[in-house]
Specification:
about 120 residues
Length: about 120
Amino acid sequence: VQLQASGGGLVQAGGSLRLSCAASGRTLSRYVMGWFRQAPGKEREFVAAISWSDASPYYADSVKGRFTISRDSAKNTVYLQMNSLKPEDTAVYYCAARVTIWTDWGQGTLVTVSS
């Protein structure tokens, strides 16, 4: 699966951003789509995921209640709506796809949250 992420930018603390990830190249019905992030000097961490078949969402504890993952089947696109952003959410955000393991990755999109 080819993945193209977009939507990053600079936002003040408490603000919102919506990331998009457009997928192509495969039928996605068996896939789980996810978002990960990597802050400077830290390891990449899981943020959220969604089952393409039934739209079941999964979230890291650090973003529950603030972030919402969704998908648009007609557009083959996954979204990450990020609300109540905090400076610690600053990172490069990556979308990814898996059937069993995370094998397909998009380029990152930078999110910077200023205090």
